[in-house]
Amino acid sequence: MLLNRIVLVGAWAAAAALMAWATPRQRVRDALVVFMFKQVITWPLGLLVVQYGFLAYPVREFPQATFASFSFEYFIYPATCVAFTLRFPERRGVWAKLGWYAFFPTWMTALEFAIERYTDLVRYIHWSWHWTWLTLLITFHMTRMFYCWFIEKGAVAPAVKGGTSS
Question: Residue 89: phi, psi to the nearest 5?
C-alpha cells in the first residue's frame, strides 16, 4: 500500500514539474486551454474503459465516488499533454515532429506498464499496452489539433512584451 502512494505522489510531482517546465509565464493561458481540453477527453474515456471492464484501478483516491483513477485521467495525462503541446517542435522537420508524437506515448506507456506490473494502481483486464499507446497518441493529436485551431481563431491573445500596449 505504501508503494502505491509513493508512486502516486511521485507521478503527481513529476507531472506538475513537467507542466511547470513546459509553460513559460506568458503561455499560462495556453497551458490551461490544453490542460482542460485533455481533461474533457480523458475523464469520460477513463470512465468508459472502467465501466466496460477493460481496466481497473484497485487503489483510487476517491473510491466512494468513482472507479476511475482521478490522478491519471484528471491530472497526470493532461499535465503531460501540456508539455507535449507547448514544447512541440513546430519549426523543425517532419521527422522531429513524428519523433515527438512517438516519444510521448512511448515513455508514458512504458511507465504505465511498469505501474501495472508492480503496483495496484492500475490493472489490465481486457487491455494491453498497445491500447494505451494508441489512445495516448490519438488523444495527444486531438488536443494538439484543438489547440492549433483555438490559437488560429485568436481565442487566446498573444502576450504583449513590455506590459500594456498603447
Answer: -75, 70
